[in-house]
Amino acid sequence: MYLKSLNLRSFRNYRECLVDFDAPKTILVGNNAQGKSNLLEAVELLATLKSHRAVRDRDLVCEGTAEGKIAATLERANGTVDLALTLRTQARRTVSLNSETLRRQLDFLGVLNAVQFSSLDLDLVRGSPEMRRNWVDSILTQLEPVYAHILQQYNQVLRQRNALLKAFRKESDSNNSTANTQNSSELALWDAQLVTTGSRVTRRRARVLTRLAPLAQTWHSSISGRSEVLELKYAPNISLEKDDPEAVQQAFLEKIQQRRIAEQHQGTTLVGPHRDEIEFTINQTPARVYGSQGQQRTLVLALKLAELKLIEEVVGEPPLLLLDDVLAELDLNRQNQLLDAIQDRFQTLITTTHLGSFDAQWLDSSQILCVEAGQIKR
Ligand SMILES: Nc1ncnc2c1ncn2[C@@H]1O[C@H](COP(=O)(O)OP(=O)(O)OP(=O)(O)O)[C@@H](O)[C@H]1O
């Protein structure tokens, strides 16, 4: 797929800006805080309807304005699509495809696919398990947009069950036996919903990691000069012996029953995919604890390349690659591996504060745009 143009109106520090992309690689160069990452963030929003930097739409809309818009024209194998996302400070966002407003945001997902690689991703190995879960979830959302809905349902059930457990704890402290009995039967209903929605999440995460692991392993071996073996393992919070809905639900329910007293004592849900982990080991040693910075960078690079390949395999077209200030963090060998892997096949948008670290051949074949205070200059 190929992003032909991007139009930002009252988005972050852009008042009005139109960019035409005329090469497979675009380098956005500029000093700090000029709007380079904001531009990549706009593309990320079109791909996932999420930003890894902002939670609230009002932070995305240009200060002093009520509404911001990101619009793009994308060429896909089966034709050209116009995408638009309108963000509002006081109301819900809306999305449109080919100028037609969509009723369900879900239908917007999966049109533009992109892999984001920023310096924040370098924390994927050492950061919290939540980071790794978010990473897998964002891949799943692109591969199978309905996953966004599944995850949302699970999180809703989780919040409600947590509220109930909290209330349960308060009432059991006050020894109110009628309320306790009522709460128990209500809790059983939420257990069932947690199990149904949670099993969907668990099974999908397991499936995607099974496909991603060999790809990441191959890239990792190649980048490390075949000296290291990466293992990527899903460690779900509930036992998962086979990909069978009933077996997974049964295991989930059993674990809830085992942890019943602890959950009531702590007033929170202790069982479910919100407590999953994804483990990385290098030569059978946990990368998180023992990996050097260089090894961790190799690992994250391998994960990102695997992500590109998997999306390409499943979607049938190469996704975009967004490299946010990350090339400078990689040494020459890793940079070259990355550049060799993407060649001209994956349209790539790269931000940087200086062009010095780029290979001359790369510069020649790239479109270079200067970003200054929310404006783009050639
Ligand atoms: N909602 C907003 N309205 C107006 N300006 C904003 C808004 N959100 C962020 N900005 C401005 O955007 C700029 C940050 O841009 P961005 O994060 O793209 O930086 P950058 O060019 O990538 O630089 P760096 O190399 O530091 O990452 C800051 O000047 C910030 O004040």
From TrEMBL:
It comes from the Bacteria. Signal peptide: none annotated. Keywords: ATP-binding, Cytoplasm, DNA damage, DNA repair, DNA replication, DNA-binding, Nucleotide-binding, SOS response. CDD domains: ABC_RecF. Pfam families: SMC_N. This is DNA replication and repair protein RecF. Its main location: cytoplasm. ATP binds at residues 30-37. It is found in: Cytoplasm. Belongs to the RecF family. The RecF protein is involved in DNA metabolism; it is required for DNA replication and normal SOS inducibility. RecF binds preferentially to single-stranded, linear DNA. It also seems to bind ATP. The keyword Hydrolase does not apply. It comes from Funiculus sociatus GB2-A5. Residues 2-354 form the RecF/RecN/SMC N-terminal domain.
